[in-house]
Amino acid sequence: MSKVLTTCFRFNMDNPEHAKAWDYLHNFDKDKIKSTNVAAITAVNDYFDRMGRLADDPYFETRQREERFVEQIVSEVGKAFIAEMPKFLASLMLSLNRGYPMQAVSVGTENSRGYAEIGNPSATEGFGNADNSENDDYSGIDFDFIGG
To answer: What element of type H or E holds 23?
Structure first.
């Protein structure tokens, strides 16, 4: 036979923390959380588990923030890498094409042997300076970890 215990919570709606907890318990997504009972049990267990880990390891929160910060950096670097890859590949293809005979479409000028001229400005047009740091967007990184 199962043993079921009951407890009662009192919420003082004049206290902002109590009102916030009341709102959470009565406005949660029913698809994600089955009931207020499940939400309360999960919250209590998470709270006391975290308190136990903090007592055992005083640097637990710092390590969590470090890990989040590193994940954000890796994510932003990956996004920047993906964004810059087409430019890199295009410039690579242009540099590989410079020493080979021209085929059907000419790019810029040819020398007397039919090879593309090295240093042709029209071949690299539109590929500006690689240093575009003024356009960098760091809004996705939480700099609270490093104090800024």
So the answer is: helix 16-26
Contact (Cβ atoms closer than 8 angstroms) between residue 44 and residue 55: no
Identify residue 27 by its one-letter amino acid code. Answer: N
> Looking at the structure, do residues 85 and 110 belong to the same domain, yes or no?
yes
Containing 104, the helix (H) or strand (E) segment is: none
The pLDDT-based confidence of 123 (bands split at 50, 70, 90) is very low
Q: Are residues 134 and 85 in the same domain?
A: yes
Rounded CA separation 125/128 (Å): 8
| Among candidate residues 137, 143, 142, the one with its CA nearest the CA of residue 80 | 137
Residue ranges in the chain assigned as alpha helix (H) = 16-26, 36-56, 60-97
pLDDT tens column, 36-54: 888 888 888 988 888 887 7
State residue 104 phi and psi, 5-degree precision. -70, -40
Domain range enclosing 104: 70-146
Same domain membership, residue 27 and residue 80: no
Higher pLDDT, 106 or 29: 29
